[in-house]
Amino acid sequence: MLVHLRHGLASAELDPLLALCKELGYSARFLDEGRRLLELSGCGDRTHRTRLEDHPDVVEVMDVGDSHELHVRSEEHEDTVVHVGAGAFGGGHVSIAAGPCSVEDYDRLLRLARGIQECGISILRGGAYKPRTSPYSFQGLGVVGLEMLAAVREETGIAVVTEVLDPRDVERVAEVADWVQIGTRSATNFPLLAEVGRAGKPVLLKRGFGATVREFQLSAEYVLNTGNDQVVLCERGVRGFDSTTRNLLDVGAVAYLAAATHLPIIVDPSHAAGRADLVLPLARAGLAAGADGLIVEVHDDPTNARSDGEQAISLGQLRELTLESKEIVMLDGRVLDIEFGPSATHTSNVKEPIQ
Ligand code: PEP
Ligand code: MN
Fold first, then answer.
1. Cα 9 to Cα 56: distance, rounded to the nearest angstrom
2. pLDDT digits (tens, 9 = 90+) for 263-312
3. pTM for this entry
4. Is residue 204's pLDDT more than 60?
C-alpha cells in the first residue's frame, strides 16, 4: 500500500502512525526525504485502507496494494454473473428489465408484462413502494402493489424487480422480488444495504444521485460484506447543473466500473433522461460504454401514469430499443438475453454456471 501523509509531520506525530502500521502487520519505509510517501508491505486486509484513510495525518491512500475490497476486479476473480429469472447480467451476458415506474393496477401491469415478454424481455420492473420527493405525491400501492407483482409473476412467469425503502419491509419484498432494488435515495442507507444483502436475493444497487464513484463502490461493499455477491450496479445519472435532462448520465463511470469491478453494471436511461425522446440514445450510449444491461420505464398511457409518465417509452419503442441493443452488444461479442418469449418458464435465482 502507498500512503500519502500530511506535510511537515514531526517525529512525535509520525511515531504513533508508524506504530499503527506495525500493529496492522505492515513493515513501513519512506520513499522520499520529506517523509510524505510511506510504502507499506505486508498483510493486505481490506479493512486497512479505510482505517488509514480515517487517520488525521493521512492525505490519501494512493495505491491499495493487496488490501482489495470485495467489489474490486482482480486476476483471480472472474466476472460475477447475476441471474434474474431467465435473464443474466455480466460475464458477456446482457439483459433488459422494463416496466412502469409504479405498480398502478393489476390489468395494466399484466398487459405491460405480456407486451414486455413479446419484446423478448424476461424481467418486469415496477415500484410498489415509491420514494417520492414530496410526501404528498403518490407513494405507491405498498403491500397491494406487491401482491399484484406476485400475481403477474405467477400468471406470466416473468421475473420481478422492485424497490424496497424500509429495512422493515425487506423480508416481505424479497418474498415477491426475484431482484431487490435499492434506489438512488437509499444508496447511503447503510442498515438497509446490509438488510437487503442478508435477504439473499440478487440486488440492484442504484448510484446515489450525489455519490462519487468511490462512494457508489462503498455502498456495494456494504451489501457484499454480508456475504451476498449477487449485486448489479446501476448508473442512473447524477445531479448536474442543467435541467435539459433530469440527471447527467455518467457514461465515464460506466466504462470505469466495467473495468474496475467484477460486478455487472447496468444503465437506467429513463431516470437519467427524464424524457422519453432521449431514452433510446442514452441506452445506446450506456451499452456502448460497456454496460451489462438496461432498466427502462415503459407505459401504455404515459399521460395518466401515477409517476414518471414523461420519461416512459411505449412498447413499440421498447421493441426498437431491444433490437438495437442486440446489435450494439454483438459488436463486442456479447449476447443480449432476449430469446425468451411469452412461454418462458419461471426459473429460480440459484446461481447457474455460464452456458
Ligand atoms: C425508480 O426506479 O423508479 C426510481 C425511483 O429510480 P431512482 O432511485 O434511480 O430515482
Ligand atoms: Mn421512476
1. 11
2. 999 999 999 999 999 999 999 999 999 999 999 999 999 999 999 999 99
3. 0.91
4. yes
- Tell me: the pLDDT tens digits for 130-154? 999 999 999 999 999 999 999 999 9
Read off the DSSP letter of residue 186: G
Residue 351 has which C-alpha cell? 446461481
Residues 339, 345, 349, 355: what is their CA dihedral angle, to the nearest 10 degrees? -40
Which grid coordinates belong to 252? Answer: 465515464
Which amino acid is located at 189 in the chain? N
Ligand 1 close to Cβ of residue 206 (< 6 A)? yes
C-alpha cell of residue 247: 440527471
137 touches ligand 1 (CB under 6 Å): no
Q: Which residue owns the Cα nearest ligand 1 atom 1?
A: 101
Q: Read out DSSP for 261-313?
A: BSS-EEE-HHHHH-SGGGHHHHHHHHHHTT-SEEEEEB-S-GGG-SS-GGGPB
Distance, in Å, from the CA atom of 161 to the CA atom of 219, rounded to the nearest integer, reads: 19
Residue 181 CA: which ligand 1 atom is closest?
2
Determine which residue's CA is closest to atom 6 belonging to ligand 1.
183
CA nearest neighbour of 64 among 79, 74, 56:
74
Taking the C-alpha atoms of residue 174 and residue 163, their distance in angstroms, rounded to an integer, is 10
Q: Residue 127 CA: which ligand 1 atom is closest? A: 3
Residue 184 near ligand 1, beta carbon < 6 Å: yes
Asked whether 306 lines ligand 1 (CB < 6 A), one says: no
Q: Which of 318, 281, 299, 294 is nearest to 118 (CA)?
A: 318
Q: Which pairing describes strands 159-163 and 123-125: parallel, antiparallel, or unpaired? A: parallel
